[in-house]
Design a protein that fits this description.
Blueprint (H helix, E strand, L loop, with lengths): L1 E5 L4 H11 L4 E5 L12 H5 L20 E4 L3 H14 L3 E3 L6 H10 L4 E4 L5 H16 L4 E8 L9 H10 L4 E6 L5 E9 L2 E9 L3 H14 L5 E3 L1 H5 L2
Parallel strand pairs: 1-2, 1-3, 3-4, 4-5, 5-10, 6-7
Antiparallel strand pairs: 6-8, 8-9
Helix pairs in contact: 1-7, 3-4, 5-6
Length: 238
């Protein structure tokens, strides 16, 4: 599988490049910001591994020479990638969070032409947590639900995209609590409180490599699918 990485110099981009380099997959292309001093540099050197013979581009269109594009960038960049995915007929994996209505609309249009998979978290464990949360919320319609999450102190959005996805899975109003500190990869707990008892569903991410591995597994699955909008739950169901 020939994979292109949008935002290869970012936290997730670096992990994805390293994961591809250690796998049977091929890095087809990668981008950085058009104004970055890293434009033209070998992508391997950017992420701190051996040179890969692929040079970072500042042009989003450079990504679409691949079998699939993986995008963990910004809402504005993702909007452009969605437009190009539809034009170039290339499947798109999106892990960008905090997306606005315009970006969501662009992704919806792209999904009419190519398979698009969007997830706030690419951990298989989190995908299962989403399923369990929906099941528990439906089984306990009278429960009060709270979602607690903690991430490293560099994470800007709060609640996290994963916490919001868990809230959406509950299909009713929930309470959120977010904490930022240290180097925590990502902890999420869903609490369903009843009179005299409560249920807690928890996932703890121990390292960020799980997200890169999950995104690559999702990409390998997505390129075999028909056009449409997909989630990690679809992947778990086969």
């Amino acid at each position: 599988m020939r994979v292109a990485i949008a935002g290869c110099a970012g936290r997730m981009g670096r992990l994805l490049v390293a994961e591809i380099a250690a796998s049977e997959h091929e890095l087809a292309a990668a981008t950085v910001s058009a104004h970055s001093l890293q434009v033209g540099q070998d992508v391997g050197s950017i992420v701190g591994i051996e040179p890969l013979g692929v040079h970072a581009s500042g042009e989003p269109a450079a990504l679409f020479v691949s079998d699939v594009v993986i995008d963990f960038t910004t809402p504005a960049a993702t909007l452009r990638h969605a437009e190009l995915a539809a034009i170039k007929k290339v499947p798109l994996i999106v892990g960008t969070t905090g997306m606005d209505a315009a970006t969501e609309q662009a992704l919806a249009k792209a999904a009419q032409v190519v398979p698009v998979l969007v997830a706030a978290n690419f951990s298989r464990g989190v995908a299962l947590l989403l399923e369990l949360t929906q099941l528990a919320a439906r089984a306990l319609p009278d429960a009060d639900i709270g979602i607690y999450e903690m991430h490293h102190n560099k994470k800007k959005d709060a609640p996290s995209g994963t916490a919001l996805a868990l809230g959406a899975a509950c299909e009713r109003g929930v309470q959120y609590a977010a904490l930022r500190g240290g180097t925590v990869t990502g902890d999420h707990t869903v609490t369903l409180a009843l009179d005299g008892e409560r249920i807690e569903l928890t996932h703890r991410g121990e390292n960020r490599a799980i997200y890169a591995k999950g995104a690559l597994a999702a990409a390998a699955w997505l390129i075999k699918q028909k056009p449409g909008r997909y989630t990690l739950s679809d992947l778990l169901k086969g």
